Amino acid sequence: MKIGIIGCGSICNAYFNGSKIFPMLEIAACADIRQDAAVAKAAEFKVTAMSVEKLLADPEIGMVINLTIPKAHAEITLNALNAGKHVYSEKPLAITREEGRLIQETAKTRKLRVGCAPDTFLGGGQQTCRKLLDDGWLGRPVAGTAFMLCHGPERWHPNPAFFYQKGAGPMFDMGPYYVTSLVHMLGPVRRVAAITGASLKERIAECKEHYGERLPVEIPTHYSGTLEFHNGALVTMVISFDVWAHGHAPIEIYGSNASLQVPDPNSFGGVPRLKNRDMKEWQDQCLSHGYSENTRSIGAADMVCAIQANRPHRCGLSLANHILDVMHSFEESSVTRQAVEIKTTCDRPAPLPLGLIPGQVDL
Predict the structure, then answer these.
(1) Do residue 243 and residue 327 come from a single domain?
(2) Could you tell me the strand order of the sheet in which 258-262 lies?
């Protein structure tokens, strides 16, 4: 399938490079609101630079990969759907629940597919954890923890202001990796109880591009809560831009028979570690699946194969909309001082088959 990328910022290189592995993806064109950025990326990766309007009107392009800033995700996705294109979007799917529902309704009406990052749960580290769970090594999942703790991107990111605006912050920027990983392993979330806050009213940019600029903080920068899953597991999650250092594993799952340390869900690899009551120490687990290197675009590749095979794609729209709902529920719970029942649901994405060679997502 011929692909057009809209959004030529820092993440697009990962998609251009990752797509080279997958023969079902042909990136043919790119576009950006800044024409010079599109021209530069087109020259670098030997594709055609277009305006957004021309790319959406091109009948040969079957799918748009939406790499715009979060505030533009819903608008670009809806425009692409209305132009007759399938869409694979960077996370989050949208800024509001209402936008997420509109995307679902439009995709259904237009009979088109929408997929959404992250696709890191298709990497070898996360797929191995899924297999350990599915094969019963942990027994019944009982509880877990998930921690993403840092002090924000203003020291290094070339454009840090949007991280502290609506639609970003630690939850909407990094939360999708952690919540998606948990839903992939444990299934959908039933309810959320949380408290949120912000330690600073403004940040000071330290990157060379905006050094010394004051960045107003419009959103919470610390989220602490508990997720109750439909399978009964209770997971404590803390997502924060207010922490200088910590010693927590990214994710741990506690089962009736064993505990599992899950690698960083913002990566494709890592080493899962297991410990049961008979083990004196945590034991590293060999990866059962490949794709342990940075393989962004595997979600789009799986989506193309799913369209052709008429099966569900793994980075599906109902999954992305459920993740969006769960993330909003943290702040909603904090404001209302009540647990929030999650109205959306989704199926667990199917695991990747064993024995895939590079470039395959199906046997």
Answers:
(1) yes
(2) 283-284, 273-276, 258-262, 251-255, 141-149, 234-240, 222-229, 189-197, 340-341
